Amino acid sequence: MDTLLGFRGDNHTVWETDGKIHVQILGTLKVRMGDVVLEAGEVGGPKARQILEILLLQLGTPVSKSRLIDMLWEGSAPLAAVSTLESYVSVLRRCLQPGQGKNGVLRTTTGGYMLDPEMVDLDLSRFDSLILRAEGSEPKIALPLLRQALALATEPLLGSELLPGWADAERCVHAARVASAGILAAQLALELGMNLEAIRLSQEVLDRDNLNEEAWTCLVLGLEAGGNPLQGLQALDDCRRVMDRELGCSPGPVLQQAQERLLRLTSAADDDFGHVIGALLSIQEVVAGHGNSAWQHAGNAGKVLGFSPQEAGSVIFGYLQRALGAASV
Asked: According to the 3-state scheme, what is the secondary structure of 37-66?
């Protein structure tokens, strides 16, 4: 009997006939068999559901009974663990392959069980396949593939299993893969000149993990390439604060170089803030040791970056006076 394959697009789900059982484990568990949909609580209870999820994570690979027992009871298995496990598998079979006995998707192997990969369409497998194809493709082909993969992974893996340690470990590994895919997509978007998309993709990664320096880098470079130096500087300041508070460190050399470029871009603006940044940079040139006698030997009547010492101080002091005056009103 034909069953329906479902895959999530940007804001919709498309179903098509392909003869397989469709299973979703990105988010809460859902199994679709023809016109029957089984939710997480309808596959035989918590233990039966976990057996299904463990076998899905190892789709096509046998999992031994001893391994299943260790994962299900996490070191506290009952005395009759093997027979109890077998009873859960029987319940699961009745849910997945009613009337088929042992001849359906859930197969018995030597000392364990396996799900037949030819009979299962799994969203996690499609995610993995899309990532693999993207990694071997040129940017214009890879970016759409990564978009599809990320659209599948908008919810965490195994959303139905919040407590078991094995589920949490799998969820963490998958979350790292999603973040890597998001960063790769952002990098490709930058390479293709799609700065707004690079910014969006980077922000999505940071919304889940604000300590991801690669995502901060893509965000800042996207803002720089898009001609938004002030926003880039704000993002850099946010990054610095987060990393200092959580890790006790500063952004790496790539972001430090980006900060210098953004400051110089900002200083070129013919407004108060641009003038202040230019004045501060001129002072920094001297403080950083770019020639101990920089004021005297930089040319332009003893100026650095267009400012004499007196001019730089006057610009900064005047700006502070105006800012403090506005704040007190």
From this structure: EEEHHHCCCHHHHHHHHHHHHCCCCCEEHH
